[in-house]
Design a protein that fits this description.
heterodimer, A: mainly beta, B: mainly beta, 7-stranded mixed sheet, 4-stranded antiparallel sheet, 11 strands
Chain lengths: 110, 118
């Protein structure tokens, strides 16, 4: 059971928008920065979002991050078939003194 | 170009030891925190631990699941991070990724598979 809760799967049509939630507590999301990672099939994870809502320069602005209280959200607009992947949220947990990840969300672009 | 290359994975019996290496290039290795993250077959990501840069003491932190069994170290002149895994258990079977941990895990290696089985 992951400390951070993500939906196991989400789906949407090409060109549409999807959001992926990540729910935690005050000891993790509520007081620490959240990052998001994309893992395409058979590859290593890749950083999409850091510090709640910042994108590395090579990440397109179709990807966005937000946070409110103890929950964070990853948004993807203009969905493409190449966005089909597993998405993970991660943050530091101050109570556990550990880096924690969500269980991952599988995105299907129908 | 930042590159991280893991090596040292393989098949090992329960209770034995294995050492993984992560060879870095393309950045000033000694200035960065380095971390290990693993992924069991068909499962999600699990943080293993990280080691701070020498400027911040070069100390390491570990996940509860590996604390006391795994040791992370670094050789800054060679730009290599190590993961010494002792008293291995079947549940340690996973792909082990080396990551650079600056603002977040901003660069990842391709991973190396460790299989713990009799």
């Amino acid at each position: 059971q992951s400390v951070l809760t993500q939906p196991p799967s989400v789906s949407a049509a090409p060109g549409q928008k999807v959001t992926i939630s990540c729910s935690g507590s005050s000891s993790n999301i509520g007081n620490n920065y959240v990052s998001w990672y994309q893992q395409l099939p058979g590859t290593a994870p890749k950083l999409l979002i850091y510090d709640d809502n910042q994108r590395p320069s090579e990440i397109p602005d179709r990807f966005s991050g937000s946070k409110s209280g103890a929950s964070a959200t990853l948004g993807i607009t203009g969905l493409q078939t190449g966005d089909e992947a597993d998405y993970y949220c991660g943050t530091w947990d101050s109570s556990l003194s550990a880096l924690v990840f969500g269980g991952g969300t599988k995105l299907t672009v129908l | 170009e930042v590159q991280l290359v893991e090596s040292g994975g393989g098949l090992v019996q329960p209770g034995r030891s294995l050492r993984l290496s992560c060879t870095a290039s393309g950045f000033s290795f000694g200035d960065y925190v380095m971390s290990w993250v693993r992924q069991a077959p068909g499962k999600g990501l699990e943080w293993v631990g990280f080691i701070r840069s020498k400027v911040y003491g070069g100390t390491a932190e570990y996940a509860a699941s590996v604390k006391g069994r795994f040791i992370i170290s670094r050789d800054d002149p060679k730009s290599i991070a190590y993961l010494q895994m002792n008293s291995l258990k079947t549940e340690d079977t996973a792909v082990y990724y080396c990551t650079r941990a600056e603002i977040a895990f901003d660069y990842w290696g391709q991973g190396t598979l460790v299989t713990v089985s009799a």
